[in-house]
Automatic annotation (TrEMBL):
Domain IRS-type PTB, chain residue ranges per copy: 118-223
Single annotated GO MF: phosphatidylinositol 3-kinase binding
Name recorded for this polypeptide: IRS-type PTB domain-containing protein
Keyword Phosphoprotein in annotation: yes
One Pfam family from the record: IRS
Superkingdom of origin organism: Eukaryota
Domain PH, residue spans: 1-90
Organism lineage: Eukaryota, Metazoa, Chordata, Craniata, Vertebrata
Amino acid sequence: HRRYFVLRAGSHTGPSRLEWYKNEQKFTAAKKSGGKAACLAPVLLGVSRISSARRGHTVALYAKDQTVVLVAEEQWGQEEWYLAVKKLIEEERKDDECGEGFSEEDDGYCTLPAAPLFREVWPVTVKARGLGCSKSLTGESRLCLTASSLILVRVGVSSDLPSVTMPLLSVRRFGHLEGSFYLELGRSAPSGAGEVWMEAQDQAAAQNIHEAVREAVRSMRLL
């Protein structure tokens, strides 16, 4: 259904939020916030954008157990929405930024970093093969990319389980096959050596994960 969306920063009228109205006229007629709304910070993990022939130009906002997907008519509109939401999250979380990293004693289970540290977020389903099976990682997750690691945030029936950190420097190889993204971790990974296979939303999403991780790994190795 077509809707008219409004992105509001936090103010005396309420927290930062995404509102939607039936049309622009309904928004104009509302003196105050009168549309349906989804709160952003601090519950939002991140925002991502993917373009495909099947889904169009989408912008997805990910909370731990909720997703809001916008479909823009043009790619420039998709880019504007993506940058606006990302900027709003970062501005509201800038006081909560924290360092990241891991030590030799890190068992791979972490406290989630502040949302601005997540460069990208994707919904995935970890398959029952490799480390997914041996380390009980199977099921729905949010795959979150930071400057130095991938983090699996468990959702759905596994939402009470701790998140799992996979440092990029421990990744031996990675790629995508049809609608799946996979990576092989070395012995230095907190979870140990092995493969993790994840089913993405579709082939375009799997390719998007592959390209983003490749760029992040390349940047890490240049340091």
